[in-house]
Amino acid sequence: MGSDVRVGDENHQWKLEELRRRMAAVPGRGESAAARIPHGTELRREALPVPSALAELLPDGGLVKGSVVAYAGARSLLAGLLAAVTEHGGHAAVVGMPRFGLLAAVEMGAELTRLAVVSDPGPDPVEIAAVLLEGLDLVVLGLGETSVAPSRSRVIAARARSRGATLVVTDGHWPNPTLRLDARVCGHAGLGAGHGRLRSLCLDVGVRAKSGPPRRGRIDLCPNAGRVEWVRRENPAGTGETPVAVRGA
What we know:
ten-stranded mixed β-sheet; 23% helix; alpha/beta; 12 strands; globular
């Protein structure tokens, strides 16, 4: 863990086997944050840890183990998910997102020794993610603006469910996910006319589950003594925040 694995070469099959060996060697495999779920049983509503401010918006107080989550928007939220899982003893991976900002995850508390990065997954990133689901608690998969066929998505979703691992997909289309999340940067505090120190960044977060009404809320990301804290904003109206457009925040 904690290394960048490259699989986009002529030894693709060998690399897949290497990933499988690594998954089998993950310390505490199956005991840290994702208990295995027997095939054919009902999905338990046990959830992975997430930042507390985000937990208040999610139907189960976290990302349900064994689920598939479709995500769109600011990278900051993904960094927070990875940080929460690894900080609490889980193992995670980022696949197919070479520009993902690991520094942001570290500032939110991520343990890099529990985080694998597969920046170049080769021609089939979904296959790589499927292997990683065998041994990790959370896999964040960048689809590269492609669509996954329903027949394949069902197979991968079944694997995630049987292994008790959570898959978050972004930058593409995944049919019929368990949950849909989106986040956009809607304001900041601390910057003046092109200069100054950023004191907080505001995310507008939307949550849509298969059942129940959609939810929406705002979360401030506030640097504090070298750590980024997540603070739920109770009343977004009349706060005087400055609208901004931040790409990939």
